[in-house]
Amino acid sequence: MNSAYLFDIDGTILSVERTFMKSIIEEILNTFSIDPEIIYRIDYAGRTDASIFRNLMGEHHHDDDLFEQIKQAYINKMNDHLTPDDVNVFDGVEETVEYLCQNNEYLGLLTGNFKETARIKLRAAGLNDYFGFGAFGCHHTDRNFLPADAERSFTEHSGIKLEKRDFIIIGDTPHDIRCARYFGAKSVAVSTGHFSFAELSKQNPDLTLKSLRSPDKWLEKLSG
Ligand SMILES: [Mg+2]
User: Fold this and answer.
1) Cα–ligand 1 centroid distance for 46 (angstroms)
2) What does the DSSP 8-state code read for residue 130?
């Protein structure tokens, strides 16, 4: 029986240059007369874009029209300016997605990114076509709701219903591990993002990795 592998993007598949992200977010905040200093006061890892952008809006965080305008400005800027040079794909990612594809596994996304920017980042990395379905951070501010979205998206995409334990959530933060547990999926934590191997291990994922290299070996451990 095959499984569905749900990949986080930032810190797991790739990272986008900090200077690039900082400059486009700064420009957007300036356009909407929001003090860009707020960039330094919030936490980003493992959070959904909906939650991050509401935070960046400060006292205006309940303003849905403003949120939609800022979101669209962000999507447009990413689309117009992100190039392959701004993106760093982590070691072992291409090897893993290629290996899973060849083994006829299902590959999807479970990311806090807005759907549009998730696809823009993956296109810049040359990896977009690997991922046929997914859950994104467009609506939910809480990551724990994303696995159920991914399950629905998977069933629509494949016409198949899997057990919850046949979903494997791969991510770089404690949030990824917690959302897998909340849903009943397996979790693979990889320390290519901001959290160390030890910090991730403490959260008891099914498997902790330093990188996604040698997928044959770590997949065997996961199923063993
Ligand atoms: Mg991440």
Assistant:
1) 5
2) G
Q: Compute CA 52 distance to the chain's CA centroid, rounded to the nearest angstrom.
A: 13
Q: Give me ligand 1 centre to Cα 14, in Å.
A: 9
Q: What letter does residue 10 receive in the DSSP assignment? A: B
Given phi > 0 = left and psi -120 to 50 = alpha, else beta, which region is 87?
beta
Q: For the whole model, what pTM was predicted? A: 0.94
Please give the distance, rounded to the nearest whole angstrom, from the Cα atom of residue 64 to the centre of ligand 1.
25
CATH architecture group of domain 4-15+89-223: 3-Layer(aba) Sandwich (3.40)
Residue ranges of domains in the chain: 4-15+89-223, 17-81
The pLDDT averaged over each successive group of 10 residues in the chain (224 residues) is: 93 96 94 90 85 90 94 97 98 98 96 96 98 88 90 96 97 96 98 97 98 97 88
Of 158, 155, 181, nearest in space to 168 by CA: 181
Residue linked to tokens 């592998």: 5
Token couple for 99: 């290996």
Alpha carbons 195 and 190: distance in angstroms, whole number: 9
